[in-house]
Amino acid sequence: SKRNLILAIETSCDETSVAIVQDGHLLLSNIIASQIKSHMRFGGVVPEIASRHHVEQITQCIEEAMIEAEVTYSDLAAIAVTNGPGLVGALLIGVNAAKVLAFAHNLPLIAVNHMAGHIYANQLVQPLIFPLLALVVSGGHTELVYMQEDGDFKIIGETRDDAAGEAYDKVGRVLGLPYPGGKRIDEMAHEGQDTYHFPRAMLKDDTYDFSFSGLKSSFINMVHNAEQKGEQLNPENLAASFQASVIDVLVSKTLRAARELEIKQLVMAGGVAANKGLRSALTKAVKEELTDVALLIPPLALCGDNAAMIGAAAYIKFKREEFSGYDLNAQPGLSF
Ligand code: KG4
Ligand code: ZN
């Protein structure tokens, strides 16, 4: 039978990415042009700069993805694109590029939710098994998502304030690390110990919600107080203590939800799913306490933003023929 090739585009934040995905799970190419260096000196993503870089990069990324996958437009079955959530100007570049390709080559257009994409990154590794629970942890989101079946997303818990990745990056800034600090904090945490014992917010309440702004504030206060008194704090121990608090809350809430919802599979998703401490803590906890649940963690390359995950998520809509018109717009605040 014919292979279904989807060309997928992702431009929601600071990576311009184009991928070719076959049948929702086979990755033929996944080009990622990162803009991190351009945003670093501003200590965060500058939306206007992000849009400009997407404009400059998108055409070449599309060409490279096609060349690497050894496909031509006549081989393609659909064009998929992230239409939200994300930065509106950044999203618009991808949405317009996708519309142009769909129109020029007479292909169906598929709109994909960026967060659904993060979850479906797992499908590039192994088939999803339902009902499943996804721990979605990125720079903008921290959510527990329950899925009864393909394409059906129910947020059962979420952060009431900062996202986990956001807290990592803010704490990184206080330690003088370049943006985004998440990865470096993770590395430092492995060289230190939980000596400072930060609070574990909402650990014992009966919701599946999270909160990270209190932890962030305690961290910042501790560093500022020490500075004022001229005291030396150990940066590795600070990182380890911060990370221990984040992981403790994420893992215990996720495990409780997994147990109560009687899921078959637990998946991790989003940039913070690249966190080595979190990956090993969740692996250990599932092994010890959830023996009948399959745990799926994306490889590091598929945790951060990429178009391959968009192509994987698009395949469900492709099969259901849920296509968009040329009036498709960016939806910066799009939810599931
Ligand atoms: O999913 P993503 O690439 O972009 C969003 O959709 O937000 O996530 C980016 C976030 C950043 O906050 C970054 O610091 C964090 O993921 N991150 C990490 C690690 N690698 C990336 N946080 C903790 N540990 C890591 N190893
Ligand atoms: Zn993302």
Automatic annotation (TrEMBL):
Q: Where in the cell is it found?
A: Cytoplasm
Designated name of the protein: tRNA N6-adenosine threonylcarbamoyltransferase
Q: Which organism is it from?
A: Carnobacterium iners
The cofactor required is:
Fe(2+)
Q: What is a biological process (GO) this protein takes part in?
A: tRNA threonylcarbamoyladenosine modification
Cofactor descriptive note = Binds 1 Fe(2+) ion per subunit.
Q: Does this entry carry the keyword S-adenosyl-L-methionine?
A: no
Please list the GO terms describing molecular function: iron ion binding; tRNA N(6)-L-threonylcarbamoyladenine synthase activity
Q: Which positions are annotated as binding substrate?
A: V136, V137, S138, G139, G140, D169, G182, D186, N275
The record places domain Gcp-like at 27-311
Q: What does this protein do?
A: Required for the formation of a threonylcarbamoyl group on adenosine at position 37 (t(6)A37) in tRNAs that read codons beginning with adenine. Is involved in the transfer of the threonylcarbamoyl moiety of threonylcarbamoyl-AMP (TC-AMP) to the N6 group of A37, together with TsaE and TsaB. TsaD likely plays a direct catalytic role in this reaction.
Q: Which UniProt keywords apply?
A: Acyltransferase, Cytoplasm, Iron, Metal-binding, Transferase, tRNA processing
The reply on keyword Glycoprotein is no
Quote a single Gene Ontology cellular component term. Answer: cytoplasm
Pfam families listed in its UniProt record: TsaD
Known EC number(s)? 2.3.1.234
